[in-house]
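Hi all, long-time lurker, first post. I run a small reading group and we've been trying to get comfortable going from sequence to structure in the token notation. Rather than ask abstract questions, I figured I'd post a concrete chain and ask someone more experienced to write out its structure so we can walk through it together at our next meeting. Sequence below, copied exactly:
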Amino acid sequence: MSVKIRLARRGRKKMAIYDVVVADSRAPRDGRFIEKIGTYNPNTDPASININDDKAFSWVMNGAQPTDTVRAMLSYRGVMYKKHLQVGVNKGAITQEEADKKFESWLEEKNAKIQSKVDNLTKAKDDKLKAKLAAETKVKEARAEAIQKRKSEAEAALVEEVREANADEAEAALAEEGEEAVAEATQAETKAEAPAAEETPAKEEQAATPAAEAPKTETKEEAPEGKVEEAPKAEAKVEETPEAEAKEEPAAEEEEKKEE
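-- Answer (accepted) --
Happy to help. Here is the structure in token form:
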């Protein structure tokens, strides 16, 4: 019976994790296994490999054949290098102490590389986060500037509207004052023209009066104060005498003809 160290899949879709198991080569991938010696999670960066190095080393030394993926994982963990050193110790090429020192130095160097990689990844992640935050800050500042600009424009527009409204009110007030002044001026002109119009007809009447009325003034001046109104009547009678005389003369002539 050949024994293999391989992966058994578990986990949900697109987020699979694997168990590192020692199983019969004839068993299905996710079927029966002899022993579980660790886990493998490829979803992290770097990938998480948790393996019991002592159990993996003993199974490898006993002839278990790892798959290609598991071999790379065991090499990453130093199990395959430890097997190489142990084979040299068994053949007498090196001592156990020398093999242990070499393995420890290799393990320290490997851990330093892993830690450096982790630090670089962490730094890159932090830098990416800082760049993202800086970009978001710029976007926020630009947005705040745009909002402030909009506010200032709105305030300026409001001030302009208020100014225009005040100007319109001032123009309306001036127009009303102008209309009132014009109305007052027209009223004053009409009032000034009314007495002049009254005076002109009186002057025209005075100009239209005949010269015959002139004696009236004289009679009024000559007559006593109590008989001012009787003087025109007497003048009227005096003026009528020629007509009466003219009528009496034909009557006298007719009587003379009859007597003859």
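A couple of things your group might point at:
The first strand starts at residue 3 and ends at 12.
The chain has six helices and five strands.
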